[in-house]
Structures are given as structure tokens and as C-alpha cells.
Amino acid sequence: MRSTAYDHLLQTCSHYGASLVAVSKTRTIPDMMVLYDRGQRVFAENRAQEIVAKAPQMPADVVWHLIGHLQTNKVRISLPFVQCIQSLDSEHLWEKINEEALRLDRKIDCLLQIKIASEETKYGWNFDELLNLLQSSRTLTWKQVNITGVMGMATLTDDAEQVRKEMRQLKTYFDQLKSSAYSSQDEFKTISMGMSGDYKMALEEGSNMVRIGTMLFE
Questions:
Q1: Strand blocks (E) in 102-141
Q2: Is the dihedral of CA 149, 58, 23, 123 positive or negative?
Q3: Which of the four, 8, 12, 32, 86, has the lowest number of CB atoms within 10 Å?
Q4: Per-residue DSSP letter, 182
Q5: Is residue 209 within 8 Å of 18, Cβ to Cβ?
């Protein structure tokens, strides 16, 4: 881990009022502990199994985020360890998370992952379908799921203008939700977008949570 990179990221995030999530997928516990000892407490994994394996080996005050696509059959093993699921991308998953959270008698923070990239392989809500679901009021019965914002991933491309346009779109989606379905919910405030290659652009376009892996560990 490059300490200067970490310090620079913290300074940049602080300037924009954003938080830093350290993406620790494929990283070892010793690597992660270097960051922990520097003060980092929020770590993220792409796969539920990684959190299940690593959480017992890390200090108890680590806050775990799941940022990868979550299959419904992995919800049960995830919830005892995860504080935030950033990749809530379907009605079925929403219902399943609520079911398991109710079983554990807890609430769990989630971000609505909205599809902004042109790549077919990227997951996320179609925004119109999400609006239709929210207008149906079914989500109001899933009280164990606390929606705290949105998450998105831009297209992996060298076309900076396309990336910026997609990030701007996510900010627009957030603003629309904040002024409608979540207008009365103060906790709906997170825009999670930006990774090692595009986090500066993401911050300029309104992100207040960046997910950084490569810059911190290589």
C-alpha cells in the first residue's frame, strides 16, 4: 500500500466532503491491516464469500460493504457481517434482503444500483422500472431495508466525456429520487460512484463516496 496515495485520497475526499471505501477484493489480511492501522475502517468486497472469510480475521470495528452483484442465495450468509449492500439491483433481491434482515431482527443499509453504463455486462436498475416499483408502494412493506442512496458504475472506456455523461446521469437520478420517493428521508444522501481510474471525475460530478482498490494496494 502506498501511504502517499492514501493520504492524497483522504485529502481529496475531504475537500469534496466524500467518504473513502477501500476495496479489498483479492487482498490479504496483512495488506488490509496496513490500511486499518492508518485509520481506514470501511472496506468493501465484491463477493459475499470474501466478507464471510475475512470478517472474523479483521478487527470488530471494520464496516463491511458489499459492492458486487449479490445472488439471492448468498444473502443469508452475508447479512451477519455486512453493514451496507451497495448493489441492490432487483425487486427479488430487495425482498430477500428484507426477509433475512427480519429473521436476524436488524435493519440493513442498501444503495440502489442504477445502470448507467452502456455495457450489457453491468448490473443495475433500469431507472423507469425502479420508479414503477417505488410508485407501487410494495417497497414500503420491506421495513428492514434502509435505502441510503444510489450506486453506479460508468462504462469502462477511454472516452472521458462518455464517463462524465454517465456519472452526471447518476447524479440526476439521485436528485430525482431525493425530490420524490425519498424526499422525507434524511438518510437518503449517498452517491457512490468513482473508482481508482475515474474517482476525481466522479467527485466533480457529485459523488460523495468513492470505491478505491488499485490505488491503495498496488
A1: 108-113
A2: negative
A3: 8
A4: T
A5: yes
Instruction: Name the residue with cell 500500500.
Output: 1
Return the CATH superfamily for domain 3-217: Alanine racemase (3.20.20.10)
Which pLDDT score, from 0 to 100, does residue 202 have? 98
pLDDT at 121: 77
pLDDT at 120: 80
Amino acid at 48: A
> Rounded to two decimals, what is the model's pTM?
0.96
- CA separation for the pair 64, 84 (Å, rounded): 7
Return averaged pLDDT per consecutive 10 residues of the chain, 218 residues in all. Answer: 79 97 96 95 97 97 97 96 98 98 97 93 92 92 97 94 97 98 96 96 98 91
Cα–Cα distance between 12 and 4 in angstroms, integer? Answer: 12
C-alpha cell at 26: 483479492
Cell triple for residue 162? 462518455
Contact by Cβ (8 Å): 124, 89: yes
User: 84 to each of 51, 143, 154, 205, how far by Cα in Å?
Assistant: 12, 15, 21, 23
The single residue listed with the C-alpha cell 491491516 is: 33
Maximum alpha-carbon separation in the chain: 49
Q: What are phi and psi of 104, to 5 degrees?
A: -90, -5
Q: How many CA atoms lie within 13 A of 100 on its CB side?
A: 17
Measured distance CA(26)–CA(90) in Å, rounded: 26
CA distance 158 to 72: 34
